[in-house]
Amino acid sequence: MHTIDPAADLKLVAVDMDGTFLDGSGAIPQEAWQVIADLQERGVHFVPASGRQFATLSEQFARLGELSIIAENGTVVMRGDTEVYSNIIDRQPVQTVINAVRAQGELDAGLVLCGRRTAYVERADEKFARAVAPYYRAVKVVDDLQEVADDVIKMAVNVGTGQVKELAAVLDVELQVVISGSHWVDAMNHGVHKGLALGRLQQSLGISAEETAVFGDYPNDLEMMGQARYSFAMANAHPLVAEAANFTAPANTEHGVLQVLRAYLEGRTTLN
């Protein structure tokens, strides 16, 4: 396991959520709040960077006040209530994905259309609602997704265990299709990812890769690794992420992000 050089002039720390910053039960560790406060006192921006919805992340970190957030796998970046960046999908690919998901009779698939601030679904059953709830707090049930007039920045499909690769293969559309979790497949415009979003945020804040640390575990975190000198793959990370990162942090179940950040804040070159 590795640490951050105590002499490093960090100005931004970006963290993936599931499998990275959140603990084994999917919660923010209680001790995280003090670590974040200590970072902010030093002038370091703490940035959640997730496939989760902006409304969800904003609610989870509401106690911190104005915060920079990379949401929806990098399709939208917010600084407080101000939009720094977003990337809108053309209407035709949206319609194609809606029809493709509807046609998957053998797969238990449910589609979420992600607008900038609100998500839209046409499935209202309890099973699908439970799957959506942790990631999308602002959700509107509609009769027909084809009739949604809002700008769509991402589409997320929830499927059953072991079905993500099968579902990704049938989304024959001119979009970037990414497996973002064990039950989720995301579709967004090509070239859009957390790395691009982080780059836009760094540019807006005047922060370089040398002044940035990132933490991630899944392939949708890959591009973020190239935006930071201190790129950390969690010990439980996907092999592709482990290969791309410059450093390794303990697993999320061991609060690995917090271990690394505490060591930096305390000027240590070893973890506890």
What does this structure look like?
There is one protein chain. By secondary structure, the chain is an alpha/beta fold. It folds into 2 domains: 12-86 and 192-265, HAD superfamily/HAD-like (Rossmann fold), CATH 3.40.50; 91-188, 2-Layer Sandwich (Hypothetical Protein, Haloacid Dehalogenase-like Hydrolase, Chain: A, domain 2). The protein has 10 helices and 14 strands. The strands form 3 sheets. A 6-stranded mixed sheet has the order 8-7-6-9-11-10. The N and C termini lie close together (11 Å).
Structural topology:
Blueprint: E1 12-15, H1 17-21, H2 32-41, E2 45-48, H3 54-60, E3 68-71, E4 76-79, E5 82-86, H4 91-102, E6 110-114, E7 119-121, H5 126-132, E8 139-141, E9 154-158, H6 164-170, E10 176-181, E11 184-188, H7 194-205, E12 212-216, H8 222-225, E13 230-234, H9 239-244, E14 247-249, H10 256-265
Parallel strand pairs: 1-2, 1-12, 7-8, 12-13, 13-14
Antiparallel strand pairs: 3-4, 4-5, 6-7, 6-9, 9-11, 10-11
Helix pairs in contact: 2-10
Helix/strand-derived category reads alpha/beta
Number of strands: 14
The CATH topology of the largest domain comes to Rossmann fold
Rg estimate, integer Å: 18 Å
Largest sheet: 6 strands, mixed
Termini, distance in Å?
11 Å
Q: Name the overall outline.
A: globular
What's the arrangement of strands in the largest beta sheet?
A: 8-7-6-9-11-10
Quaternary assembly: single chain
What proportion of the residues is helical, as a percent range? 25-40%
Mean pLDDT: 92
Low-confidence stretches: none
